[in-house]
Amino acid sequence: MTTIGILGAGRVGTNLAGKLSEAGHHVTLGARSPEDTSARTRGLAPQIDYADQRTTARTADIVINATPGNSSLERLTSLRAELSGKILIDVSNATRDTADGLPGDLCYPGSSLAEKLQAALPDTRVVKTLNTMLFMVMTAPETLAAPPTAYLSGDDEHAKKTVTNLLGDLGWQPEQIEDLGDITTARATEAMILVVPHILRRHGFNPFAVSLTR
Predict the structure, then answer these.
(1) Is position 26 within any domain?
(2) Which residue has the higher pLDDT, 34 or 147?
(3) How many structural domains is the chain composed of?
(4) Domain range for residue 13?
(5) The pLDDT value given to residue 205
(6) Averaged pLDDT score across all residues of the chain
(7) CA pair distance 193, 93, nearest whole angstrom
(8) 114 inside domain
């Protein structure tokens, strides 16, 4: 059983926490107000623990960044000691929102949040994935009409293999997982977020993923 800490208790973090807990992992949901989060998500899964983000990062084997991407770098850099030696799965997109609250521009054009995190956390193995879809698809890829794609970016091959196995616990089949290469390839998948607001404005908040079809 793997101990997984999830930083961020919004829709993405709680969705991942529930499914990973159901898969048999020991999950801690890290939030700024653990008591409030526990009350809000009661019934999500009885075996989920709640803690502050520093404790969550320190006690987990694998940490998932599900914090808002535009503040993730500052938040996680402050946890450098706690994240040392860990695998950090980054599922966030760093964007500046438009007036309607949807992504408009990238915070790190010509780079990516994942690259910035890897540079700031040299003793942490960063893997980018699951950032090219709406949050509900992350844990239920089988619900889409066509098989979606989960892209992987990261410098450490063992870390990517570990993350691939974890994606399997979320319902992803091996043929749906596309390893793009090192961490610099995350700038390509992070840029895909710019198509999302246009789709949402036209079709509403319906599940979809930006996928590769062969």
Answers:
(1) yes
(2) 147
(3) 1
(4) 3-203
(5) 86
(6) 93
(7) 7
(8) yes
